[in-house]
Amino acid sequence: MPGRNALFVPGPTNTPDRILRAMHRAMEDHRSSSFPALTRPILADLRRVFKTQDGQCFVFPATGTGMWETALVNTLSPGDRVLASRCGQFGHLFIDCAQRLGLRVDVQDEDWGSGANADRIEEALRADTAHEIKGVLVVHNETATGVTSDIAAVRRAIDAAGHPALLYVDTVSGLVSLPFEMDAWGVDAAITGSQKGFMLPAGLGLLGMSRKALDRRATARCARVFFDLGDMIAANASGYFPYTPSVPLLYGLRESLDIIFEEGLDAIHARHHRLAEGCRAAVRGWGLSLCAKEPRWASDTVSAVMVPPGIDGAAVIDVAYRRYGLALGAGLGKMAGQLFRIGHLGDLNELMLLGALAGVELAMRDVGIAVALGSGVAAAQEAFRATAAPLPPRGAPASPDAPPPPTRAAHERVAVAR
Fold this sequence. Notes:
The chain has helices spanning 17-23, 36-50, 64-73, 89-100, 118-127, 151-160, 211-215, 229-236, 247-263, 265-286, 313-324, 350-366, 375-386, 408-417, and strands spanning 6-8, 56-60, 81-86, 104-109, 133-139, 141-142, 147-148, 166-170, 189-193, 205-209, 302-306, 326-330, 339-343. It is an alpha/beta fold. The protein folds into 2 domains: 17-261, Type I PLP-dependent aspartate aminotransferase-like (Major domain) (Aspartate Aminotransferase, domain 2), CATH 3.40.640.10; 264-390 and 403-417, Aspartate Aminotransferase, domain 1, CATH 3.90.1150. A 7-stranded mixed sheet has the order 2-10-9-8-5-3-4, sandwiched between helices. Strands 1-12-13-11 form a 4-stranded mixed sheet. Strand 3, helix 4 (89-100) and strand 4 form a beta-alpha-beta unit.
């Protein structure tokens, strides 16, 4: 099909041309004396993205799933007990990973469409007076349901219980795109991948580990070879890796970090919130609802849209792709067929999202959902206009003192005014 690929799944995301050009290079010797000039600044700059002063960041030729395993096997032993909140498919898979590694998992099931329940976590930890629970597992941004959990509240719950459990957070679809504070939130293992907010192809697993978590390596007895942080720490100290890294992806990561710092994390977060508010306005304009049960849970990186009874969400996705070249996310696990997902993260702006929303409307009409063409697009346009930053006078250079993009509070004031 002619034209650009309309990729609106919640990952992988669009890869900017700058990153594609940065990765397009001949292979080189990853043992050369010049190679650390690439790797050392990357590892240092990742700490700025994770927002950690004392923690250490790692880059593996892997994915977020590999980082689940890395975080667990380097800090725990077979038979150790962990507490996990399950709010969607990726929380389910995180739990499955822990169980396959021989860990005992206390599962707290929540309604799919809500986030981790900090009160239940605190209650379970208070009851664990012997401190058998060694860790708490939470998914920051559950892409299967379009839900973001309050990680700061989970940390407060752990502290209120006076419990020493480590906090393991899957932020695969959260980091960069959503506010994330590894140190401030007391996250001990922050797990992510390259194909979401970093705007890269899949293939790099990224991990932030606190000093407390790294100290647990001394007593951890889970078997580990490829994912042994000891080997990685030793090699990274001189700017190398214990095995062959993905050199093109490292150059892509370098360019990604440059792009991130040029825009600024706060501006990136505000942009994602603005795009998400436009998408949510479109869903309301269609007369449909999100899987997220309350506005506080709604993700700024993906909207999971519930389809009417009698409609298969997979049909919307199929028609959108085959007829209009638009890729949408499917319902996963027990939400299969009940919804479709619109990813709005990464290298994205208003016009790109408006085009996707128009394609969604066409596909919904084609499968029998009675939406008025243009209704969601118009609602999103109004949301974008209502929260647009003021333009400088024509011909005037952009002022460094120009007001920042509208905050979440500004969007909420507009919503109340409506």
